[in-house]
What we know:
Elements: E1 5-9, H1 15-31, E2 38-42, H2 49-53, E3 62-66, E4 78-80, E5 91-97, H3 101-105, H4 110-114, E6 117-120, H5 126-132, E7 136-139, H6 143-151, E8 158-161, H7 165-171, E9 179-181, E10 185-188, E11 193-197, H8 202-218, H9 220-228, H10 232-235, E12 242-245
Parallel strand pairs: 1-2, 1-3, 6-7, 10-12
Antiparallel strand pairs: 3-11, 4-11, 5-8, 5-9, 5-10
Helix pairs in contact: 1-8
Amino acid sequence: MIDHHIHFWNGNKTSVRREYEKQLLSICLQEAGMLDANIIVDETDYPRAEDEGNIFSGPCDVLVSVAGNQKFEGKPVRVIELPLCHGILGHRLLIISQQQSQHFATINTVDQLQSLTIGIPATWADADLFRHNGFKVFEKGSLEDIFERLLKQECDYVALGANEIEAIFNQYKLADLGLMIEPHILVYYPLPLVFYVHPEQIQLAAAIESGLKKMISSGMLRLLFERYHPNLVNRLALGKRNKFTLHNPHLPASLKEFCPELNLPILQR
């Protein structure tokens, strides 16, 4: 029998993702018939990757993270391999210094981008992925730290998911600091978000998967996405940007069909 007090760890991410994923879990459980589920949300941020990787040794029952997250490699965990966000997190736009806008406008090849240094906060799964693809990576501190490093020219750009870059840009008042969202470049790699469930929570995992499948088949998942990310594709011109496609070595084979490498999953209707 499922304990209807469900501990959901929802830290180490932006507020827009936290709200979307919290609502998504709630609807999944409702669709699975768990109308009286009490979701206890823990938004603790863990600065060390090992702490996040050991999250299920505590009271956590379920969380959302990227598929193939190496922090959970070799650890007992149940992964529901159904994408939750239409692959949008893998559509990365750049935050750069306004002074460098003309230089970035001349970038037409991945080699040019690889010659620069990307700033990535510590514990983010993206760091290994960019290194795997031959990029120079400055990995240190928090997201706020990385913006400070960008201002000091210790790195050249920061890449954030299209679903959260605007909220982050406004939250940190980056325009006032002389930073901007680069308007021409899109870095894409398959990076689906999925549910991770405590290894002993077999029935909970089954309920979440059942509810999620109902949301997908009914179109409810897309409607939820569009409610939280209205007109995202057109507003950020995702289909018109100069696109660089990278390889994700940790993407589970079972998810590759959901993550075509040469087009935009969110544009498929």
